[in-house]
Each structure stands twice: as C-alpha cells, then as structure tokens.
Amino acid sequence: AQTVTQSQPEMSVQEAETVTLSCTYDTSESNYYLFWYKQPPSRQMILVIRQEAYKQQNATENRFSVNFQKAAKSFSLKISDSQLGDTAMYFCAFMNVDAGNMLTFGGGTRLMVKP
Amino acid sequence: DTGVSQDPRHKITKRGQNVTFRCDPISEHNRLYWYRQTLGQGPEFLTYFQNEAQLEKSRLLSDRFSAERPKGSFSTLEIQRTEQGDSAMYLCASETVPGGFYEQYFGPGTRLTVT
Fold it and tell me: Which of B4, B45, B55 is nearest residue A103 as measured by Cβ atoms?
C-alpha cells in the first residue's frame, strides 16, 4: 500500500508571488503517476498537473510546475504569479498504474491567495 | 462533453434510512470510480468499474454499501441503514482506459448528512 503526506494544512501567499506546496509519498511500486488536484470552494476537483514516475524531467503547466525527487519520494508544487483564483484546497495524489488506477490522496493543503 | 454529473447534490437523511446516489460519467469513459471525502480530508477510494464490471472494492466499503453500473454508463451507490459515520461527500470520477493519459474527471459530489 502507498501513503501520501501533505505536511502543510494551510498556506497563504500574496497575489503575484510564488508559493510551494509540499508532498511526500511512500511506495514500493515502480510504475506510477503523481498528480496535483485543485478543489476550489464548493466546486469540483480538477487536475492541475501530472508527473510520470519514469520521467526525470519535471512537469510544467503554465504557472504550475513540480519538483519531483524520486529517490526522496518528494513531489512539490510551485505556483508562480499567484492569482486570486488559485485559492483552493490542493491535493497531492498517487496512482499505481499497474493496479486499477485508483488514486491515493494526501490530506490536502488549503491555499489562500491574498490581494 | 458535459462533464461528470452527480445527483442529488445534497442529501439529509435520518440514521437507519437507505439512500441512493447516481453518477453520470463522461459518455465515452469506460472507467468509473467512487471516492468518499470527509470534512477536511482527502478523498478515499471506495470502488471502481470497468464498463459494467466492478473490479475492486476498498475495505472501507462495508456490507451496507453497494454499487452498480448496469449498462456500463451511469452508476449508483446505495447505502443501507445509514449511520452518522457515513456523513461525507461522495465523489464520482470517470476516465478512459487506455488512452486517457491517466486523468480522472471528477463530478461535483453528493454531500450526505446523516442525522
């Protein structure tokens, strides 16, 4: 079984600044994906960014990028030029692609972007 | 593509009553997942379907829970003899396998309150 840990229950950042959300995971699997999902208040969860475990290059999606450290089992999310619309719960998630693609989520980080 | 829909969005029931939730996935998606999210926590996997076959059930899914996807399209999740501990948000997600790039699309959820 795998576990996902997000050690920052809450964070805040000023608009236009950069913030990094932390995530660590534990697994013995070798073929997996990692994800960051965003859950805005009272709205549905959407995918922010994904990383294949076998790729060394860190994924980027516009203002969002990850720092994937496979040996350390660390997967942090960096949000650049933070916008008010980035205010949400952020969940780190693990997927074992050899076993049904079920997602294992961390406990989440509540991010508040302040004007 | 109208997204994943869930019905009802909110349900209040008395302890001991039965409840049923419905999920309509994105039409071409062959995989459908159910997750449960308690307040302030990340979602936890309950069960998933590949077309109409239920392929995996979590240990969280007690005998009081049953899920179906009779024609490989919409799915229902029934909870019998509800308990206060069943109060949670029930999330549905769908995915295309293979070829979906491991992205699960989430519905808005059904919030269950057991009084």
Answer: B45
| B106 to A104: CB separation less than 8 angstroms, yes or no | no
pLDDT band at B1 (very low <50, low <70, confident <90, very high): low
Query: Do residues A33 and A53 make contact, with C-beta atoms less than 8 angstroms apart?
Result: yes
Question: Environment class of residue B77 by beta-carbon count within 10 Å: exposed (0-12), middle (13-18) or buried (19+)?
Answer: buried
Mean pLDDT of B22-45: 95
Measure the CA–CA gap between B104 and A104, rounded to whole angstroms: 12
Locate the chain A residue with the closest alpha carbon to B56.
Answer: A100
CA A13/CA B23 separation, integer angstroms? 36
A50 touches chain B (CB under 8 A): yes
Q: How many CA atoms lie within 13 A of A65 on its CB side?
A: 9
Omega before residue A41 within 30° of 0, cis? no
pLDDT in tens, A47-82: 999 999 999 899 999 999 999 999 999 999 999 999
Task: Give the one of A37, A50, A106 whose C-beta lies nearest to B102's C-beta.
Answer: A50
